[in-house]
Amino acid sequence: MFRFNRRTTTQNNPSEQLQTVLAGSAIENLYIERKAIKHLYLRIDPGNGQVRVSAPKRMKETEIVRFLQQKRDWIARKRQQLQHKVQLSRTLPDSSDRILLWGQPCQLLLQASSQSGITLNGKQELCVQLEDPANRTSLQQQIDRWLRSQLSERIEQRLPVWERISGTRAHEWRIRSMKTRWGSCNTRAARIWINQELVKLPPECLDYILLHELVHLLEASHNARFHHLMSRFMPEWPEIDRQLNQYILPR
What we know:
The chain is built from seven helices and 13 strands. It is of the alpha/beta class. Strands 1-2-4-3 form a four-stranded mixed beta sheet, with helices on one face. It has a four-stranded mixed beta sheet with strand order 6-7-9-8, with helices on one face. Strands 10-12-11 form a three-stranded mixed beta sheet, covered by helices on one side. Strand 3 and strand 4 (51-56) form a beta hairpin. Helix 4 (136-166) packs across helix 5 (203-215).
């Protein structure tokens, strides 16, 4: 969950008229930027719900106001949807004693030990042994390495399954941090990239992304043929796609 701050920010100083109209428009946490473009663009930052407007440098402020008033219901609806999504984080909050693993919260149990290591017990508890449990940097690094190893192990198990089903083969796969994509595919090199955050989501989300990128080896575009192939290999993919969209990648 997040709160919307009551503020309007503009890159250039707004006129008194624009400030007055926007103040009464019920659009909070608004940022307006003037650019060398021809049209107005609107997007909502999934991380904090900020409404970001890019406007042509010479566009009249009355046009910006009219545009925002027309989009007010859409903005409210999108913000409402965002409040039901899960914001992922690359770092452990200072007050956090839980992490997500394959869609399930795991309790962190920290133990001081000269030998570092992580084990997962049957109670969804992650036992972390390290020399100084109070050292958040060391704790973060150790958990990151362990999560990456868990994701790597699952990819090694599941990728051959989807290669066999789709009749494709990835020559190489890698794990990386990505801000806007869950996966990507270099069709020429037959190389696929998997977002490191997928280890925190339900396992079927990883399966979906693996297949999605493999299908790009058969069809590069997201056209009707691509969707037909996805439905042929994984009929339930639209449901998993909706599930995946409930998570917001860290920026």
